[in-house]
Amino acid sequence: MQENEIIRKINQLLIDEIEIDETQINPAADLKKDLGIDSLDFVDLFVIIENNFGFKMKAEEMADVKSLQDFYSYIIKRINPN
Amino acid sequence: MTRVVITGMGIYSVIGKNLPEVENSLRHGISGIIFDPVRKEMGFRSALTGMVERPQLKGVLDRRMRVGLPVQGEYAYISTLEALKNAGIEQSYLDAHEVGILFGNDSSAVPVVESVDILRQKKDTMMIGSGYIFQSMNSTISMNLSVIFRLKGVNFTLSGACASGSHAIGIGYLLIKQGLQDMIICGGAQEINPESTASFDALNAFSIRESEPAKASRPFDRDRDGLVPSGGAATVIIESYESAMKRGATIFGEVIGYGFSSNGEHISMPNVDGPVRAMQKAILDAGIKSSEINYINAHATSTPAGDRNEASSIDLVFGASKPLVSSTKSMTGHEMWMGGASEVIYSAIMMNQGFVAPNINLENPDDVTVKLNIATKTTPCEINAFLSNSFGFGGTNSSLIIRKV
After folding, report:
1. Which residues of B form the catalytic set?
2. Rounded CA separation B77/B116 (Å)
3. DSSP alpha helix (H) spans, chain A
């Protein structure tokens, strides 16, 4: 899957499933402070990502994921490890 | 002791989604019972149920507030909005005062079933998501609404089977009477779905008059053959008389008596003695004579034994004065955890509008129910005080007395 396709899909899932305001979607946005994604939303993201990308996110790998760009990078790396 | 008054009421029921709709149904004896083909396909003995559409809260509540809210919580949110509105309570008031919440609820089956289904299928708890835990606990109503409305007072759920909603108002009344709280959002909520009633259907307790859904719930009638499960939510705002006066609030009634008892016998078979003691304790607490009660909203669910025993109980306590009696379950079906709260609202509507709603489908009383003065038609009546009965499995009994102010 192409990177821009992955990013577009992540953005759409955040808008549709987590109900993030489309205007707030910005790679530099802090997931917690800017997008308001709290610890419970992360629990739902585990489900959303597995259902839509077919892999399990690991909590320990999310420690350094702060911004939306970090999140894109993490997902892209899990999908395209090479 | 502090006087306790009702200053807000809200209802989301199978006979109306707000107070005016419910008043209309009560006046005209309109049933909210339907035949649900899904239940038949699932293997239910009876596919009869009360039914109300699910509220659409997307765009009303944000996602986090909706994710943990089960369907009966959605009903309760709507009924609480209406109650707060006619109580004249805005969010700024809730933010500035210690307002509590006590709701009656005794199940939340669907989220339990769905979350376990996911686990069995996926074999991974991480696939369950964040909402089911908050949806599946019995305290889901008080848990969610206390967060949505940012409440700061007493906050818990009462599970007392089909008397849950009544006990919630009773305990709230005691807390305000003791001066421990000034205002409490009380009520009851009941989910409507096959999952929550399947095991109840298994007890052969439901009416099987499936060819005539509107005639299936027939409390006190000789040919009654069981109850019809139902649901929704009802919210009653109770507060100290002093607080109500200070706010200039409209008062819908004063809670003057709460009586409770336990049968101490069978888990599902009701008796006569327990309800008698609950009603007598309520009358004693109210400090009035039984003859001062003009209307009794009976628990009567349309089961052969339950209605018979309640009729005997009412006759023992009120045989001399014979107040008007009706069971609004003839229209609503059995609202179970919600019923004790909704029936206070139905009765308060009648008290404030000067009528007694009919006990529809009572065509022929039996040898015991004939002893009661049952309203079979809408009856104009000056109600100065009413008593509302609620009984439940395990022999829990609650009687509330409300009077006009």
Report:
1. 162, 299, 334
2. 26
3. 3-16, 39-53, 68-79
How does pLDDT run across B62-75, given as a tens digit for each residue? 999 999 999 999 99
- Sorting pLDDT into bands at 50, 70 and 90, what band is A59? confident
Put simply, the answer to whether A44 touches B62 (Cβ < 8 Å) is: no
- What is the reported pTM? 0.97
Closest CB to A44 among B62, B124, B130 = B130
Residue of B nearest to A18 (CA): B63
The letter for the amino acid at B187 is: G
Q: Where are the domains of chain B?
A: 4-403
**Nearest to residue B22, comparing CAs of B335, B331, B361?**
B331
Cβ neighbours for B199, distance < 8 A, ≥ 6 positions apart:
none
A3-21 residue pLDDT tens = 999 999 999 999 999 999 9
Summarised one tens digit per residue, pLDDT across range A69-82 is 999 999 999 999 87
Chain A CB contacts of B62 under 8 Å are 19
Write out pLDDT tens, residues A39-48: 999 999 999 9
Helix, strand, coil % over all residues of chain B, rounded to 5: 40, 25, 35
Is A40 in contact with B130 (Cβ distance < 8 A)?
yes
Q: How far is Cα B179 from Cα B195, in angstroms, rounded to an integer?
A: 41
For the stretch B62-116, pLDDT in tens is 999 999 999 999 999 999 999 999 999 999 999 999 999 999 999 999 999 999 9
Instruction: Round to whole Å and give the CA distance between B313 and B47.
Output: 31
Nearest CA in chain A to B58: A19
Provide the ipTM.
0.93
| CATH label of the domain that carries residue A39 | 1.10.1200.10
Which CATH number does B4-403 carry? 3.40.47.10
Q: A19 to chain B: which residues are within 8 Å by CB?
A: 62-63
Of B63, B64, B129, the CB nearest to A47: B129
Mutate one of B64, B118, B128, B133 to test the A interface: name it (highest A CB count within 10 A). B64
Contacting residues of A for B127, CB less than 8 Å apart: 46-47, 50
Split into its structural domains, chain A has a count of 1
Interface check B125 vs A, CB under 8 A: no
Chain A residue with minimum CA distance to B128? A47
**Domain region containing A57:** 3-79
- Copy the structure tokens of residue B61: 């509540």
Tell me the pairing of strands B324-326 and B385-392. Answer: unpaired
**CA-based nearest distance B126→chain A, Å:** 7
